[in-house]
Specification:
Blueprint lengths: L10 E6 L3 H11 L5 E7 L2 H11 L3 E4 L8 H10 L6 E6 L6 H8 L3 E4 L7 H18 L1
Parallel strand pairs: 1-2, 1-3, 3-4, 4-5
Length: 139
Protein backbone atom coordinates (compact mmCIF):
# COMPACT_ATOMS: atom_id res chain seq x y z
CA UNK A 1 0.00 0.00 0.00
CA UNK A 2 1.45 3.36 -0.97
CA UNK A 3 0.65 6.58 0.78
CA UNK A 4 0.93 9.82 -1.13
CA UNK A 5 1.55 13.07 0.65
CA UNK A 6 -0.10 16.09 -0.89
CA UNK A 7 2.05 19.19 -0.79
CA UNK A 8 -0.24 22.17 -0.34
CA UNK A 9 -4.00 22.32 -0.39
CA UNK A 10 -5.95 21.53 -3.52
CA UNK A 11 -8.04 24.66 -4.01
CA UNK A 12 -11.64 24.85 -5.11
CA UNK A 13 -12.07 28.11 -6.98
CA UNK A 14 -15.20 30.02 -7.94
CA UNK A 15 -14.91 32.72 -10.61
CA UNK A 16 -17.80 35.21 -10.54
CA UNK A 17 -18.00 37.64 -13.45
CA UNK A 18 -20.65 38.48 -16.04
CA UNK A 19 -18.00 38.71 -18.77
CA UNK A 20 -17.28 35.41 -20.52
CA UNK A 21 -14.02 36.97 -21.77
CA UNK A 22 -12.82 37.63 -18.20
CA UNK A 23 -13.89 34.15 -17.05
CA UNK A 24 -11.96 32.57 -19.92
CA UNK A 25 -8.93 34.77 -19.30
CA UNK A 26 -8.74 33.79 -15.62
CA UNK A 27 -9.35 30.12 -16.42
CA UNK A 28 -6.48 30.28 -18.91
CA UNK A 29 -4.19 31.70 -16.21
CA UNK A 30 -5.20 28.93 -13.81
CA UNK A 31 -4.88 26.07 -16.30
CA UNK A 32 -2.30 23.55 -15.22
CA UNK A 33 -1.67 24.99 -11.75
CA UNK A 34 -1.07 22.01 -9.47
CA UNK A 35 -2.66 23.72 -6.45
CA UNK A 36 -6.10 23.72 -8.05
CA UNK A 37 -8.58 20.90 -7.59
CA UNK A 38 -11.44 22.45 -9.53
CA UNK A 39 -12.67 25.74 -11.00
CA UNK A 40 -16.34 26.69 -11.27
CA UNK A 41 -17.79 29.80 -12.87
CA UNK A 42 -20.87 31.95 -12.29
CA UNK A 43 -22.12 34.91 -14.32
CA UNK A 44 -24.55 36.36 -11.76
CA UNK A 45 -24.85 36.80 -8.01
CA UNK A 46 -27.72 34.32 -7.90
CA UNK A 47 -25.70 31.63 -9.68
CA UNK A 48 -22.68 32.40 -7.50
CA UNK A 49 -24.71 31.96 -4.32
CA UNK A 50 -25.88 28.55 -5.50
CA UNK A 51 -22.27 27.49 -6.14
CA UNK A 52 -21.10 28.86 -2.79
CA UNK A 53 -23.71 26.76 -0.99
CA UNK A 54 -23.06 23.58 -3.00
CA UNK A 55 -19.33 23.88 -3.60
CA UNK A 56 -17.89 25.74 -0.57
CA UNK A 57 -14.99 27.24 -2.55
CA UNK A 58 -11.62 27.91 -0.97
CA UNK A 59 -11.09 30.97 -3.13
CA UNK A 60 -13.57 33.29 -4.84
CA UNK A 61 -12.70 35.78 -7.58
CA UNK A 62 -15.53 38.30 -7.50
CA UNK A 63 -16.44 41.13 -9.86
CA UNK A 64 -18.25 44.17 -8.44
CA UNK A 65 -20.62 44.77 -11.36
CA UNK A 66 -22.91 41.75 -11.57
CA UNK A 67 -26.50 41.24 -12.67
CA UNK A 68 -28.74 41.19 -9.62
CA UNK A 69 -26.81 41.81 -6.43
CA UNK A 70 -23.46 43.57 -6.84
CA UNK A 71 -20.17 42.03 -5.82
CA UNK A 72 -19.68 44.31 -2.82
CA UNK A 73 -22.99 43.18 -1.32
CA UNK A 74 -22.07 39.58 -2.12
CA UNK A 75 -18.77 40.08 -0.29
CA UNK A 76 -20.64 41.34 2.77
CA UNK A 77 -22.99 38.34 2.60
CA UNK A 78 -20.05 35.93 2.30
CA UNK A 79 -18.35 37.46 5.33
CA UNK A 80 -21.55 37.33 7.38
CA UNK A 81 -21.96 33.59 6.67
CA UNK A 82 -19.98 31.95 9.47
CA UNK A 83 -20.18 28.47 7.90
CA UNK A 84 -17.77 29.47 5.10
CA UNK A 85 -14.47 31.32 5.10
CA UNK A 86 -13.09 31.61 1.57
CA UNK A 87 -10.30 33.88 0.43
CA UNK A 88 -12.07 36.60 -1.61
CA UNK A 89 -10.34 38.40 -4.44
CA UNK A 90 -12.17 41.39 -5.90
CA UNK A 91 -11.34 41.54 -9.61
CA UNK A 92 -12.82 44.69 -11.10
CA UNK A 93 -12.57 47.67 -13.41
CA UNK A 94 -14.00 49.91 -10.66
CA UNK A 95 -10.71 50.98 -9.15
CA UNK A 96 -10.81 54.77 -9.16
CA UNK A 97 -13.55 55.48 -6.65
CA UNK A 98 -13.55 54.38 -3.02
CA UNK A 99 -14.21 50.77 -4.00
CA UNK A 100 -10.79 49.47 -2.91
CA UNK A 101 -11.16 50.78 0.65
CA UNK A 102 -14.81 49.77 0.85
CA UNK A 103 -14.06 46.24 -0.35
CA UNK A 104 -11.08 45.79 1.97
CA UNK A 105 -13.13 47.04 4.93
CA UNK A 106 -15.92 44.61 3.97
CA UNK A 107 -13.49 41.70 4.14
CA UNK A 108 -11.82 41.30 0.74
CA UNK A 109 -8.44 39.62 0.96
CA UNK A 110 -7.20 41.09 -2.34
CA UNK A 111 -8.35 43.86 -4.68
CA UNK A 112 -7.18 43.55 -8.29
CA UNK A 113 -7.60 45.83 -11.28
CA UNK A 114 -8.72 43.88 -14.37
CA UNK A 115 -6.72 46.27 -16.55
CA UNK A 116 -3.33 45.56 -14.99
CA UNK A 117 -3.30 42.96 -12.20
CA UNK A 118 -3.94 39.64 -14.00
CA UNK A 119 -0.29 38.64 -13.55
CA UNK A 120 -0.89 38.58 -9.76
CA UNK A 121 -3.47 35.79 -9.96
CA UNK A 122 -1.07 32.79 -10.06
CA UNK A 123 0.84 34.21 -7.07
CA UNK A 124 -2.41 34.52 -5.13
CA UNK A 125 -3.19 30.88 -5.91
CA UNK A 126 0.20 29.77 -4.60
CA UNK A 127 -0.08 31.95 -1.46
CA UNK A 128 -3.59 30.67 -0.75
CA UNK A 129 -2.56 27.03 -1.17
CA UNK A 130 0.38 27.56 1.19
CA UNK A 131 -1.80 29.35 3.73
CA UNK A 132 -4.39 26.57 3.76
CA UNK A 133 -1.72 23.88 3.81
CA UNK A 134 -0.21 25.50 6.92
CA UNK A 135 -3.67 25.64 8.55
CA UNK A 136 -4.18 21.92 7.81
CA UNK A 137 -0.84 20.98 9.38
CA UNK A 138 -1.50 23.06 12.50
CA UNK A 139 -4.80 21.32 13.29
Amino acid sequence: MSVSVMVGKMLKILLVDDSEFILQRVQHLLAGMEQIQEVRTATSAEEANQWIEAYNPTLIFLDINLPGKNGLQMLKDIRSNKSIDPIVVILTNNTLSGYRNECMQAGADYFLDKAKDFASIPDIIVETAEKFSFKDRSN
